[in-house]
Design a protein that fits this description.
Number of strands: 2
Oligomer: single chain
Distance between the termini: 27 Å
Strand order of the largest sheet: 1-2
Order of helices and strands: HEHHEHHHHHHHHH
Structural class: mainly alpha
Number of domains: 2
Shape: globular
Length: 227
């Protein structure tokens, strides 16, 4: 059995589920993508997003896909303005109550700086809402230009953060090959798996399983976070 077949066989033990409620504002997608890297998702990332939503008076932070877009989605420029008005240090400590940094180094930039830069770059390319983001994902030439700019933001790493951003913004064909997904694949295949290899394996396995790559990625993530 080849590697894809072994992944498909192992996936038979996972709970594959359709995508549930998701962030209804591009700003919350950006926060989640940046603050979830090397952080406990339920304990730190989700509360961070909800604290911002409450502070910014976002009434519907989460919504089912069928109900999107929400009528009062916050434009990304509003998110940028909020950070600029407070300053990154105060915004991190007073609004988000999360002073995590982009690297495990006390001198590394705050994650909120990376989130601001992400939002600024997206706005500079005309991306302000989820509708704009989904139009971008369908325009490969423009997408490549945006990805090139976003890759220059501190903390880019292997590219998992950027792939995860597109997932959050609505692209179910993307996966976030983070350490938990890589760990699962390495256990299944009994060998080291790179980020690029993980993307190929999960995408191919999802096609055989007749689910989206997002659904398979999320099922793996849900299983691994319980360990």
């Amino acid at each position: 059995m080849n590697a894809i077949g072994r992944v498909v066989a192992a996936a038979a033990h996972l709970a594959l589920k359709p995508r549930g409620p998701r962030w209804a504002h591009a700003s919350l997608c950006v926060l989640d993508a940046v603050f979830s890297i090397n952080a406990h998702y339920e304990r730190h990332t989700v509360p961070t997003c909800h604290r911002y939503a409450a502070w910014a008076c976002i009434s519907i932070p989460l919504s089912g896909s069928a109900q999107l877009p929400v009528p009062d989605e916050q434009p990304l420029q509003g998110f940028v303005t909020h950070i600029q008005a407070r300053g990154e240090t105060a915004f991190s400590s007073e609004v988000l109550q999360n002073r995590q940094r982009t690297r495990a180094n006390r001198d590394a930039p705050l994650k909120v700086e990376a989130a601001r830069q992400y939002a600024e770059i997206l706005v500079s390319h005309g991306i302000s809402t989820l509708v704009d983001a989904n139009a971008l994902l369908a325009d490969l030439d423009k997408l490549n230009a945006v990805e090139s700019d976003l890759a220059g933001v501190v903390g880019h790493g292997s590219g998992a953060r950027l792939a995860y951003l597109w997932m959050l913004l609505g692209d179910d064909s993307r996966i976030k090959p983070d350490r938990m997904v890589l760990r699962w694949l390495q256990t299944v295949l009994q060998r080291t798996v790179t980020t690029a290899q993980a993307i190929v394996l999960i995408t191919a396995a999802a096609a055989r399983l007749r689910c989206t790559p997002w659904e398979l990625d999320h099922a793996i993530w849900e299983t691994q976070r319980r360990h």
